[in-house]
Amino acid sequence: MPQSLIFILSTMYNGKKVHAVIPARAGSKRLERKNVRMLLGKPMLAHAIEACKKTKYIDEVYVSTEDPTIAEIAKEYGAKVIDRPEELAQDKVPTQAVMKHFADVNKEFDIMVDVQANSPQVKPENIDKAIAMLEDKKLWEVRCVNSEGLEHGAFRTATREVVYWNGLSAHFGVVVDEAIDVHSEEDLKHVEEAMKNGNLS
Fold first, then answer.
1. Which end of the chain has the lower number of beta carbons within 10 A, N or C?
2. So where are the chain's domains?
3. pLDDT of residue 199
4. DSSP string, 56-116
């Protein structure tokens, strides 16, 4: 069996192609250029890319951006780049619109995993758990929550069809992940200290 085919079979889940997309625009009001801020010697975006690459089920990792610097970082750490139109890189553009653009450009996936660039502690095993739950339970999407049951945006996985929906799906599951979203200098310091003490992605 060709080595490339062995790789594909080892990463697909139940024969479904799983692609991750990390939205990473240049602008940020609360923490300037947060996605490229250095964290433990590498850009924060790199931690999200590496988490995706450590999973068992993700076949391809993409970064959606309008920024050349972010695109270069994405390529350096092994992600493919989706060129995001400027109109989809503004403050009030919902993430769902970025996901729809990703699905329009990329026709190859069956399952999409949306991973935040500013959640560097996200655990690969929890992403895999969400992918398996989505497929095994025949759900529409799986979201992540913290240990108190509160939803946050570290990652979300959904079928291709659900990416195009405008409303919230009712048939979904949740996976617990304690990743902290970085939105401020204080968040950045807190996450860096936590990761230094072993709470790594």
1. N
2. 3-196
3. 61
4. SS--EEEEEES-HHHHHHHHHTT-EEEE--GGGSSTT--HHHHHHHHHHH--S-SEEEEE-
